[in-house]
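Retro notes (design track)

What went well: tokenization of the new backbones is finally stable.
What didn't: we kept losing track of which sequence belonged to which structure.
Fix going forward: every design gets posted as structure first, then sequence, in one message. First example under the new rule, 808 residues:
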């Protein structure tokens, strides 16, 4: 037993060993790794050990590529390649789409024909075989051997590894900084703790008052004995057949395979027993039967195979299937590396490296914004809701999930006060961060919740296409009304509120009361970590408005920007007000008809906010637009929202007012060159590249986080910038969803970030970062389902480039 370490890593699975190894390799001395049992005694010991680089996320792909390199260095990786099979035409299209996305982020991948697939895997059936993706550099490893090899390498660099040492508590200091880890064998003083406890991560986080939304989901795999005459060679490529729900590899002439069931149950959602270790849980042959049937369809001779063992074990799943990484806001020295069940051995090498970078330098080489440990909001504190979302993420890991489909688990969870009005209007509801939001409307039809809607129409034009066209025309030509209550709203109050926001935001925030500022929060490298509007409600009170899905992430970032002793209170106030958005040429006339207050251009100019009286309600009206038309956001107490909504609709009837959903907004905003956080901008993008230089007025702005990096960037020439592309040669709809490769001169030069059909301009639109030297007349192509479609660089703003309508 030791009494002190500089860093303590909790968890002796592949992730914990990777973190400890990379910390030691980075020169971070006195690292200790603790496990309550033996190394690999959690989910790690049951892993199949297959590792592929194929992933739609640029960051996860690079994590996996690095992991393979690391395992090769350690001599524990078998490079046999991998084959991902399409067993339906729909999945072949998804593979074509996936290959385009992979090429766009630097992975050299080609589709194989059915005949070529049979050459790679002679043992499979040719029935329902439509093609595959083959990656020669993929392969597999033995989970125990690989983890112990990494642990040995860590020990050689000075890491202390203590097994049979369960952590029972974590001591925090007066400023909530990590001071020590308490174990059953004694106290270890330390300054950094990394929670890599896998299934037990939520309980470890609870020791410091944090929450980690993940739930164990039962996963099953089976070992089958060799079948005489059909023995499988060890060098056979690993396989994945999502349509048949299975993955696997050869093992001693037989086969080891597992898969992702449609109804795998969560287990121990209120906390995994500490005494659980590497034991299995009861297997369910009936539930496994569809996977067995799928494997037999692909390998018919398996019908005669003897079962060596069917194994069931729980794996920790997060609500979105992505890992939870990084420091926890408000807890100095506490880091998370958890929720890795879909990215265990594949992600572990790169994740360990990233966590070590975070601890030693404060930054990561790759953009890990989508994996930030604090990205989930308060609704995920409810264990049942987290478990339902995690179960859904598990179900769709292999089940084809179309890009326009909606989450279904746990709905309805959050509804605005206007929900019944949207139902009456025929809303089709999607879901974001638990909120029911109208995607679009079908006037005259019953309302419903969207789910697997795209499964019905596949990769063709959506059947509601004309509804979206009508909604877009409503806003461009008349006036449309939108329930935007799902906006994330962060209240920032206190004597130092302006000081904090000036430091966190790249735009000037310290302006007069009533000012509304659009700007970005940057990291130290000037990467964009948040895209927000900030309203000054009083001298010491601000409201930061962000997206429904980013509010927890942005709130956490602001907490990280706080300095000791600053008098600032931060809280999520998203549920405390409804937001009514309405825009269009007649928006001012409609608003003036329901209030006695002056809403003229001088009384309520662009980027200003003021209180208005509508009937008996006091409403904060903000003159903003995300669609490029004259209009407002009205912040109103939930108890008054229906009254205000009804009065706006009544007053707007003479002007042709109509309901509008979020899918139309996506089209409208792209015609205006407006960005979307997480797609068009992120931590890997800088404001000047993103066309947002106007939000970073260095000459009129003092110190802020990322300023030095912005100055360095502006002192050199830009190498790329975001451009608007018109895709296709005519007005015909194309199935563009984002991520597709952009080609020029036979080379991939970028990837599509956002895509939508622009109904006002009758063109398919896409955003992509392209080299600045690229001529505006350059001949480009977008790879869509294996075909290259012509594209051209067009104006950054296609509708009202002078922005006169919004300011009118």
């Amino acid at each position: 037993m030791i009494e002190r370490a500089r860093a303590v890593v909790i968890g002796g699975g592949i992730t914990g060993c990777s973190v400890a190894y990379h910390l030691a390799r980075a020169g971070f001395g006195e690292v200790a790794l603790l496990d309550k049992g033996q190394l690999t005694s959690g989910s790690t010991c049951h892993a199949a050990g297959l590792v592929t680089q194929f992933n739609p996320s640029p960051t996860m792909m690079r994590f996996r590529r690095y992991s393979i390199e690391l395992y090769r260095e350690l001599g524990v990786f078998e490079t046999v390649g991998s084959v991902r099979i399409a067993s339906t035409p729909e999945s072949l299209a998804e593979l074509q789409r996936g290959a385009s996305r992979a090429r766009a982020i630097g992975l050299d991948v080609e589709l194989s024909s059915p005949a070529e697939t049979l050459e790679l895997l002679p043992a499979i059936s040719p029935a329902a075989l439509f093609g595959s993706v083959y990656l020669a550099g993929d392969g597999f490893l033995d989970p125990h051997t690989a983890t112990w090899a990494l642990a040995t390498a860590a020990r050689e660099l000075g890491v202390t590894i203590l097994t049979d040492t369960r952590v029972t508590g974590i001591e925090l200091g007066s400023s909530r900084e990590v001071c020590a880890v308490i174990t059953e064998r004694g106290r270890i003083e330390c300054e950094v703790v990394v929670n890599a406890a896998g299934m037990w991560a939520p309980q470890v986080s609870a020791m410091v008052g944090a929450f980690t939304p993940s739930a164990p989901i039962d996963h099953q795999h089976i070992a089958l004995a060799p079948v005489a005459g059909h023995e499988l060679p060890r060098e056979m490529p690993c396989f994945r057949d999502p349509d048949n729900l299975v993955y696997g590899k050869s093992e001693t002439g037989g086969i080891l395979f597992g898969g992702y069931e449609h109804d795998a149950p969560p287990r121990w959602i209120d906390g995994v027993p500490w005494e659980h270790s590497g034991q299995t849980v009861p297997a369910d042959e009936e539930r496994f039967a569809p996977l067995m049937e799928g494997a037999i369809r692909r390998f018919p001779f398996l019908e005669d195979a003897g079962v060596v063992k069917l194994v069931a074990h729980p794996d920790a799943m997060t609500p979105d299937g992505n890992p939870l990484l990084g420091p926890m806001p408000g807890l100095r020295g506490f880091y998370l590396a958890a929720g890795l069940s879909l990215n265990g051995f594949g992600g572990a090498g790169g994740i360990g490296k990233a966590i070590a970078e975070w601890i030693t330098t404060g930054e990561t080489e790759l953009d890990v914004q989508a994996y930030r440990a604090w990205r989930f909001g308060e609704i995920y504190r409810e264990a049942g809701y987290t478990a339902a979302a995690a179960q859904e993420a598990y179900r769709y890991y292999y089940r084809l999930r179309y890009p326009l489909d909606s989450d279904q688990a746990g709905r309805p969870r959050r509804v605005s006060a206007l929900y019944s009005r949207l139902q009456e209007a025929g809303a089709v509801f999607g879901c974001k961060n638990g909120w029911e939001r109208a995607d679009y409307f079908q006037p005259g039809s019953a309302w419903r919740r969207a789910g697997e809607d795209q499964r019905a129409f596949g990769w063709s034009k959506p059947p509601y296409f004309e509804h979206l066209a009508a909604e877009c025309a409503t806003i461009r030509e008349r006036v449309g009304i939108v329930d935007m209550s799902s906006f994330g709203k962060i209240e920032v109050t206190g004597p130092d509120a302006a000081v904090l926001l000036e430091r966190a935001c790249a735009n000037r925030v310290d302006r007069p009361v009533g000012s509304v500022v659009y700007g970005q929060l940057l990291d130290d490298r000037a990467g964009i970590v948040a895209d927000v509007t900030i309203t000054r409600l009083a001298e010491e009170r601000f409201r930061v408005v962000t997206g429904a899905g980013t509010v927890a992430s942005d709130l956490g970032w602001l907490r990280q920007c706080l300095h000791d002793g600053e008098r600032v209170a931060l809280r999520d106030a998203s549920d405390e007000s409804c937001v009514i958005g309405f825009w269009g040429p007649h928006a001012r006339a409609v608003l003036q008809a329901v209030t006695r207050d002056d809403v003229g251009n001088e009384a309520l100019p662009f980027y200003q906010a003021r209180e208005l009286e509508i009937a008996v309600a006091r409403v904060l009206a903000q003159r903003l637009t995300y669609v490029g038309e004259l209009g407002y956001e009205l912040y109103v107490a939930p108890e008054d929202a229906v009254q205000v909504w009804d009065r706006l609709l009544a007053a707007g009837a003479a002007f042709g007012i109509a309901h509008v959903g979020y899918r139309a907004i996506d089209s409208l905003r792209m015609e205006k060159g407006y960005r979307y956080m997480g797609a068009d901008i992120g931590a890997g993008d800088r404001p000047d590249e993103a066309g947002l230089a106007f939000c970073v007025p260095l000459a009129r702005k003092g110190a802020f986080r990322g300023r030095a990096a912005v100055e360095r960037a502006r002192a050199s020439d830009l190498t790329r910038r975001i451009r608007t592309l018109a895709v296709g040669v005519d007005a015909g709809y194309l199935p563009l969803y984002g991520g597709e490769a952009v080609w020029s001169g036979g080379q991939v030069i970028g990837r599509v970030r956002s895509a939508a059909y622009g109904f006002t301009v009758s063109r398919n639109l896409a955003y992509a970062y392209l080299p600045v030297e690229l001529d505006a007349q350059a001949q480009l192509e977008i790879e869509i389902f294996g075909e290259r479609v012509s594209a051209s660089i067009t104006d950054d703003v296609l509708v009202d480039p002078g922005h006169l309508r919004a300011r009118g």
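Added context from the reviewer: The chain has 19 helices and 40 strands.
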